[in-house]
Amino acid sequence: MTATERFLCADAARIRGDPMVGTAPHGFVWILIEYRGAWPANGFDGLDLEPGTKALVFSAARAVRARILLVRRHGRRRPEGPGRWAVLRYETSGAHRQQWGTWSGDEDLAEIAGALGAPGELGCPPVVLVCAHGQHDTCCAVRGRPVGRTLSERWPDLVWECTHVGGDRFAANVVVVPDGVYYGGLDARSSVTALEEHLADRIHAEHLRGYTDLFPPQQAAVAAVLRRFGPAGRHDYAVAATFRDNDHWRISITGRPSPPTAFEVEVRAYRTPPCQLTCRGPATSSAVAYEVTSIRVG
């Protein structure tokens, strides 16, 4: 690379062929805060909010291991009126819950702490988050914003741009919450197809990083079944048992379609060669990747 060339981690990851399956961060609860100003590189942590309110929200989120993300509509358009916030909760039954509110002053965000302990509402449409956090990583802007624009034009009420969701080198990243599904390596065209299929409850292995209720080897196992046997609904497959032997896992998966099907999937973890993994991190490091070595039916 010459001195005038700019390193882009997503381009480098594609050249290397970095596997992205099994890279969805584990989690069940998300806090969204609409913030129309500039996003700090570290997101919510970097906001200049009233200290007591900020500490309350952070403490309440940490207690339930919720992830706090700043969001905005594409184009940084500034609608009239207060901003919005949301608490989104994944449930294994598929009956996901949401609670929404508004805020004008910093102190209004204290309501988030109470919402984290409330049941929330059922039957709300999913929220589609597109990571476009350029202050955190260049690729999130370069690849994320075109995807945010395209999806916002198609589904303006569902789509928000958001701060860092993890896996910069897999940009453009799209997360559907509270479904808890991570997609990566998307562009404008593939993002529309992936979301169309997702909203029809047909999840494909292509571009799937994983489900956030599963741990990385389990994510890899479910993705392998989807790749082998075709798309399926978000809750059509369940992990029944997981056995670990050092860097190897044997994972039992049951299929909910009638008649139910059982799969035994073997997964191996390994470390990738050291390389630069993000645009802003010049130090090299390795990542853990997952390889499915066998799938048995029945």
Order of helices and strands: HEHEEEHEHHEEEHEHEEEE
From the coordinates shown, what is the CATH architecture of the domain at 9-214? 3-Layer(aba) Sandwich
Number of E-state strands = 13
Largest sheet: 9 strands, mixed
- Through-space gap between termini: 50 Å
Low-confidence stretches: none
The number of helical segments is: 7
Output the structural class.
alpha+beta
What would you call the shape? globular
Query: Regarding CATH, which class of the domain at 9-214?
Result: Alpha Beta
Q: Please report which band the strand proportion falls in: under 5%, 5-15%, 15-25%, 25-35%, 35-45% or over 45%.
A: 25-35%
How are the strands of the biggest sheet laid out side by side?
A: 4-3-1-2-6-5-7-8-9
Mean pLDDT: 93
Could you name the CATH homologous superfamily of the domain at 9-214?
Glutaredoxin
Share in helix: 10-25%
Q: Report Rg.
A: 19 Å
CATH topology of the domain at 9-214: Glutaredoxin
